[in-house]
Amino acid sequence: MTSATMTASAMLLARNDADRRFPQAEQPELLEELCFAVTGMLRDADWDRPWRVYELDEMSPIDLAYLVESGLMTPRFAEAGGEGRGFAVYGEGLASLEINGEDHLRLVGFRTGDGLEGLWSLLNSLDDRLETTVSYAFDPGWGYLSANPARAGTGLRVYATLHLPALMLTGKLATTGLELVNHGLSMAPLWGGAGGVVQVSNSARQQGPESEVVRLVSEVCSEIVEKERSVRKMLLRENPLQARDQIGRSLGLAQHAWTMTFAEAVNLISAAQVGLEAGLVEAPGLAGRSAFSLMTELQPAHIVIDHMDRKVGCLESNEIDEVRARLMREVFAGACVR
To answer: What is the mean pLDDT of residues 254-265?
Structure first.
């Protein structure tokens, strides 16, 4: 599996304190006590890389959105409030920890490309260290307990983000998604399905080693990727003129638009990526960078923080679309269809 087709890997690992009720039912002072103990360990223990502990009360909505867009914070945690919550990022973005969200602890890992096994190795090591401070709630029949019964068992949710525009274009994506049910997996569109970007994840409660969940998702995604490659070859073989026309139109819009929504940008980058993989496109501005990384950088909060010096206070500003279009023009300058 290549990083061009499997664009990102993510994991959520839920754990709960055996000595406390789930966050929704526990007394605030006991949640504060747990948060204090865990953040103290993050600051003081000898870790391979440092943790940065955030003060959630001091974070703006744009700061929270940036973390969500980066894959380091779940949307539900960003939107929720409540006593005793905490948040920390490990190794400048390798992983993060949500404290007293839906569960007492939730490790979050994210990286671009095909990195499921390496990501699990990292989260597993962090999980082992956290267990020295928190006694995990575990039942011989249910496995690791969670506030959401669907996550009981391993407590692990594995996500593989795939770029499947050919399957979407030919109407085969829905059938592919239905086939996943037999494996206890599910498929959902990312960013509203723009660009044929979807996420495959384990959905059923699963027992057994966490590594088996990782292996299952990885193997099934490899099969989906082969289907995508096969359909792309068929489309290019049977409709070469239409393929070049669609890709060329996308490059033209990317090079000349002066305002652009995020969904539009994702669709254009998706078309360019297909052209690059097929050897139909030359794009010097994309050399050495992945399509998914570019998509991530063009999300609203990333533009406000990284390219606008926080000069706008909301993520719906038209200025964001203008800056996004400028960035696209810069990236695709000199790009052409062969």
So the answer is: 98
DSSP 103-166: SSEEEEEEEESS-HHHHHHHHHHHHHHHTTTS-B-EETTTEE--SSGGGTBT-EEEEEEEE-HH
Determine the pLDDT at residue 151. Answer: 83
User: Is there a contact between 203 and 214 (Cβ–Cβ < 8 Å)?
Assistant: no
Q: Which pLDDT score is estimated for 6?
A: 65
For residue 327, how many C-alpha atoms fall within 13 Å in the half-sphere facing its CB?
Answer: 26
The percent helix, strand, coil of the chain (3-state, each to 5) is: 50, 20, 30
Q: Residue 104: which domain range? A: 6-230
76 and 218 fall within a common domain: yes
For residues 24 and 120, the answer to whether their CB atoms sit within 8 Å is no
Whole-model pTM: value is: 0.92
Nearest C-alpha neighbor of 173 from the set 186, 191, 157, 184: 186
Residues 211 and 294 in one domain: no
Q: Which two tokens stand for residue 72?
A: 């380091």
Same domain, yes or no: 35 and 106: yes
Share above pLDDT 70 across residues of the chain, in percent, rounded to a whole number: 97
Q: Would you say residue 1 lies in a domain? A: no
pLDDT digits (tens, 9 = 90+) for 197-216: 999 999 866 677 889 999 99
Burial category of 282 from C-beta neighbours within 10 Å (exposed 0-12, middle 13-18, buried 19 and up): middle
Main-chain dihedrals φ then ψ at residue 137, nearest 5 degrees:
-75, 115
Burial class (CB in 10 A: 0-12, 13-18, 19+), 101: buried
Exposed/middle/buried for residue 229 (C-beta within 10 Å: 0-12, 13-18, 19+) = middle
- What pLDDT is recorded for position 329? 98
Please count the structural domains in the chain. 2
> How far is Cα 320 from Cα 300, in angstroms, rounded to an integer?
7
